[in-house]
Write a structure and sequence with these properties.
The protein has about 140 residues and is α+β, with helices and mostly antiparallel strands. The protein is about 40% helix and about 30% strand. It has a six-stranded mixed sheet with strand order 1-6-5-4-3-2. A hairpin with a 4-residue loop joins strand 5 (about 85-95) and strand 6. The longest helix has 28 residues, at about 115-140.
Length: about 140
């Protein structure tokens, strides 16, 4: 697992080279995304799951961003104002022992730029990444 200094260095590298690091681009979170990933019904539920993955992170707060990290993931939550409109960028990387690997970037704005939406989408993406990593590991063992 990378230490906080290495995590900050990885962040700077990703932000300074975002076009080349964001291999899938930046996914905007909107009604279409939420509907397509089945997140609308779970957003209407009052109670969060007790096993919520977003509870199992170390947190580093700065003026610029909030960094969440654990043995598997590094997440940077970056609030911005663009064209007088508040928005949030979320960068998610795999926390490999030797180097972070940026996997997903999404952004929220307007009605979708609230902690509730950001954390629900983050939870969804992390679960999806865990399932993908598990499938790849199984495939490599059996392949």
């Amino acid at each position: 697992m990378l230490n906080p200094i290495q995590i900050e260095e990885a962040y700077k590298e990703f932000v300074n080279n975002l076009p080349s690091c964001a291999h899938d681009g930046i996914t905007p979170i909107d009604l279409s995304y939420l509907h397509g990933h089945g997140l609308l019904s779970s957003l209407s539920e009052e109670n969060g799951e007790p096993d919520d993955l977003t509870q199992y992170f170390h947190v580093i707060e700065s003026v610029e961003k909030v960094t969440l990290f654990n043995e598997q993931f590094i997440v940077w939550i970056i609030p911005k104002v663009e064209s007088d409109q508040p928005m949030t960028y979320v960068l998610i990387a795999l926390n490999h022992p030797e180097k972070a690997q940026l996997e997903v970037i999404f952004s929220t704005r307007g009605v979708y730029n609230s902690p509730r939406y950001v954390l629900k989408v983050l939870q969804h993406v992390l679960v999806d990444m865990l399932e993908t990593e598990e499938t790849l590991t199984l495939y490599e063992k059996n392949g």
